[in-house]
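ok posting inputs for the magnesium ion job
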Amino acid sequence: MSEERSLNFLEEIIENDIAEGKNNGRVHTRFPPEPNGYLHIGHATSICLNFGLAKKYNGKCNLRFDDTNPVTEETEYVENIKNDIKWLGFQWDNELYASDYFDKLFDFAVTLIRKGLAYVDDSTAEQIAATKGSTIAPGTDSPFRNRTIDQNLQLFEEMRAGKYKDGEKTLRAKIDMAHPNLLLRDPLMYRIKHEHHHRTGDKWCIYPMYDFAHGQSDSIEEITHSICTLEFIHHRPLYNWFIEQLGIFPSHQYEFARRNLTYTVMSKRKLLQLVNENHVSGWNDPRMPTISGMRRRGYPAEALRQFSDTIGIAKRENIVDISMLEFCVREILNKTANRFMAVLDPVKLVIINYPEGQEDIFDAENNPEDPNGGTRKVPFSRELWIEREDFMENAPKKFFRLAPGNMVRLKSAYIVKCEGCKKDDEGNIIEVQCTYLPESKSGNDTSGLSVKGTIHWVSVPHAKTAEVRMYDRLFRVEDPSNEDGDFKEYINPDSMHVLPQAYIEPELANAQPGDRVQFMRKGYFCVDTEVRDTLVFNRTVTLKDAWAKEQRKG
Ligand code: ATP
Ligand code: MG
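and the output
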């Protein structure tokens, strides 16, 4: 599928560059996460894009941690980011850290001061903001703009040496306070922050701004195509300005549209709130749009890659329907997940003409979509668990499941005829009763009957138990970030429903954390990787798109 699609605009740019012999035809990209949170599905797009382009054009892709802000960054995040990228199926050529360039960046700053292109400013953040001007009015020069080169060199050294408090001084590029692009009105290059950094410790108390760090880091690594999201488009002239003034390797920035998904939020700041305020159990809660959440929920890496590829790379901001992602997930699980029977909301079925103590062992196909999928043994006996919803005492005409007088096939076993049910004193159904047709054995059916419904079941004496967690969308509205008020007001209060005791086939009791299976008629499920003392299944996705059906009904 992806081989046949037309080139996206970045591929077109790269193929042009190669044709023109730019950088000797070399392609080198990078994925630059800030280690201030876990990666989400939007990052997965960026990863597939950067690593995918490098692969396609025999190039390289660096993993560079953009760790220039000491306050929000942590080593825990670094490890999880690496883990997620590997799980997605990619391997970086170099693992690098912007903080490794702090010395070089400092030297670059000194170079610009020497060229008269940077100055130390004593103005406060408020003063700087107040003199920026606007899109229709020029800014005004800082009173410190004309310090001599020697003064600037000395003050900048003193900033580094820790002589000043946070916010007391900044280093600014000396460009043009009337520039039509506000980002070029003497942008900040360095700020003072007496903070411990997760890698450089207390070596630095001045830290470079994103704009001064990113392009230069690209250049140091000789990145040919630096791909970022659209909000940085106005930063590009500044990216180029620093590189040109420093006369260093000319990396180029290209922008593509941020990928958003319906019924969730994507910004790490918001995801962090969900975690910190216990709306979810953690960054890898199966309802989170994080890569680790989706992995725990049972989404195959291939589905995330396929999703990134099929949606394409856009130039305009877009919000993609989550059902597109779920479609990719289903497609892959349909081919790869073995089928099992599990009863989530059980009621007992007794086959009154099946001898007590007798059992049958049936061979059941593991996966009808996979000719090499093999079979498994499923035990059968007089008492079975079936889904409560598969029996109705007073059923409408088109109810093809169990109702007095109706016949159904028990999957892989016999045809049974419903004879009635037993109730407790309060009228609750506690047992459904059937007779079976011995000659209707699956695979050797001589009954000549054809029945409309097939239901799943689990033999009572053989059944094992498991906890099953059903998930729904984390938010009630398509785009919670775009609604009035706080996005958390739109959290879906029923996004998780726990079934503490479901019955599963005995064979499933050996399932290992991370195993993905289909519960026939119920959906795709994955063994939870966090809970170890009981067997827990997370519902990955339903078999069909229930929401689409719901919406068609109107
Ligand atoms: P967020 O706003 O979610 O915190 P970010 O842009 O601050 O994201 P970074 O760690 O800086 O997160 O992002 C690393 C890379 O991933 C950047 O190149 C960024 O442009 C890209 N990226 C982040 N979010 C998305 C998204 N939703 N769609 C596509 N690419 C994204
Ligand atoms: Mg960022």
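notes: The radius of gyration is 31 Å. The first strand starts at residue 28 and ends at 31.
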